[in-house]
Amino acid sequence: MTLVERKTRFTVATKAANKTARAVTDAICNYLKPYRDRVLTLTYDNGRKFAYHEEIARELTAEGFFAHPYHSWERGLNENTNGLIRQYVPKGKDIDDLNDEDVAEIIEKISMRPRKCLGFKTPNQLFLKHQLKWSCKIRQSVKVYSNLMKEYRNDETTEVFRPV
């Protein structure tokens, strides 16, 4: 199962225990939970394995969309990424036969490949850059909140309204 971030083309792939809806749902939720605050939308194909899409949306607080049947271009980035993966897995070889280390190695190669659409930067470079920006924004928000609380505590006029 491949998950591709639209802006940076950062790709993650994980093997679900099997192709059941339960296994795919668990794999997606477990893999994306650390990024929950960054996941806004997910686009699914129409396979049965996404039967629990509402649970995924609830777990990740993300909106889910389905591509129209037989409209693979509505999921173009994911289809392109699957094509990149196929460059490392010859036709006739079943992707299910790959172990976790093989999958990780392929994804690492894809994520370290410079892309024209990214100004010849790699998905890893851009994703790391966005992660750092995101972390800085969170730290700034915490500082602002902390300073506001200090001001609140030091403000003599609010002393009257504090509970005892």
SSE map:
Layout: E1 2-4, E2 11-13, H1 21-32, E3 41-44, H2 53-60, E4 63-66, H3 76-86, H4 100-111, H5 123-154
Parallel strand pairs: 3-4
Antiparallel strand pairs: 1-2
Order of helices and strands: EEHEHEHHH
What portion of residues belong to β-strands?
5-15%
Total strands: 4
Q: CATH class of the largest domain, please?
A: Alpha Beta
Tell me the distance between the termini.
Answer: 56 Å
The neighbouring-strand order within the major sheet is 1-2
- Please state the CA-atom Rg, rounded to the nearest Å: 21 Å
CATH superfamily of the largest domain: Ribonuclease H-like superfamily/Ribonuclease H
Shape: globular
Question: What is the CATH third-level topology name of the largest domain?
Answer: Nucleotidyltransferase, domain 5
How many individual helices? 5
Into how many domains do the coordinates divide?
A: 2
Architecture per CATH nomenclature, i.e. the level-2 architecture of the largest domain: 2-Layer Sandwich
Structural class: mainly alpha
Largest sheet: 2 strands, antiparallel
The overall average pLDDT, rounded, is 83
Low-confidence stretches: 157-164
The residue fraction in helices comes out at: 40-55%
